[in-house]
């Protein structure tokens, strides 16, 4: 049964458990709590790594559990866990959530699935637990369309991700170029999606998601560009068949 069908049958909102509460996690939590953006879903629990003296003020009155205790989180009543904390979380909690708990698991750190063994284990766990493994589309809202288009013999897909130089700080790009002094667009990586998601785990999840939905991790070419003249982050996609 699909998640939507299960929620309709239960006659209640979808209960969401967040794993992580950084920039993305707090954004998702806010949208779940406001009752307007996602009226058919509510925040049920949040699992974080580092303890805090108190839960964020945003969660006050929401009824959501905020904890560092894994056992407490996985015992809470939620329907789907949403990973917003990095690839390690996918490896640590994905299979347990899908197989042992039989609950749905959504991944934002899609690059984790470049590990073929992990990918296979998660798919097997989802089947065994009767749950769904879901990939967040992120900055690719038309990914369903692109996946359908890829059925028509797409041999290769190229994705170019362009950001301002500061957007590549904390990545291997810093070892390749002086980001602070760039005056023109500069390619900081060119290769396949599998390698991009491994070297740039926080930056190439979009490329990994596109690859998994279309030509595959080894037939999707990725160019990562630092451009001081770009107005904001930009993604260009070119299929070839």
TrEMBL record:
Boundaries of every Aspartate/homoserine dehydrogenase NAD-binding domain copy = 20-135
| A molecular function GO annotation | aspartate dehydrogenase [NAD(P)+] activity
Looking up Pfam families in the UniProt record yields: Asp_DH_C, NAD_binding_3
**Entry-linked InterPro entries:** Asp/hSer_DH_NAD-bd, Asp_DH, L-Asp_DH, NAD(P)-bd_dom_sf
Gene3D superfamilies per record? Dihydrodipicolinate Reductase, domain 2 (3.30.360.10), NAD(P)-binding Rossmann-like Domain (3.40.50.720)
Q: What residues does the Aspartate dehydrogenase domain cover?
A: 183-238
Family, per entry: Belongs to the L-aspartate dehydrogenase family.
Q: Which PANTHER family match?
A: ASPARTATE DEHYDROGENASE DOMAIN-CONTAINING PROTEIN (PTHR31873:SF6), L-ASPARTATE DEHYDROGENASE-RELATED (PTHR31873)
Could you identify this protein by its name?
Aspartate dehydrogenase domain-containing protein
Native organism is Alexandrium catenella
């Amino acid at each position: 049964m699909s998640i939507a069908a299960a929620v309709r049958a239960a006659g209640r909102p979808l209960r969401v458990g967040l794993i992580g509460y950084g920039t993305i996690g707090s954004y998702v939590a806010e949208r779940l709590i406001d009752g307007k953006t996602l009226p058919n879903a509510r925040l049920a629990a949040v699992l974080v790594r580092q303890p805090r003296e108190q839960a964020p003020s945003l969660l006050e009155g929401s009824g959501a559990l905020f904890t560092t205790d894994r056992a407490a989180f996985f015992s809470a009543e939620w329907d789907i866990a949403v990973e917003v904390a990095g690839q390690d979380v996918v490896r640590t909690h994905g299979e347990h959530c899908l197989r042992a708990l039989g609950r749905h698991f959504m991944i934002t750190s899609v690059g984790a699935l470049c590990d073929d063994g992990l990918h296979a284990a998660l798919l097997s766990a989802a089947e065994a637990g009767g749950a769904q493994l879901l990939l967040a589309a992120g900055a690719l809202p038309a990914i369903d369309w692109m996946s359908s288009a890829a059925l028509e013999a797409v041999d290769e897909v190229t994705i170019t991700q362009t950001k301002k130089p500061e957007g590549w700080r904390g990545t291997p790009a810093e070892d390749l170029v002086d980001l602070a002094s760039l005056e023109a667009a500069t390619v900081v990586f060119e290769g396949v999606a599998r390698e991009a998601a491994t070297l740039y785990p926080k930056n190439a999840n979009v490329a990994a998601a596109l690859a998994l939905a279309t030509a595959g991790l080894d037939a999707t070419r990725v160019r990562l560009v630092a451009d001081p003249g770009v107005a904001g982050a930009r993604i260009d996609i070119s299929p070839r068949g």
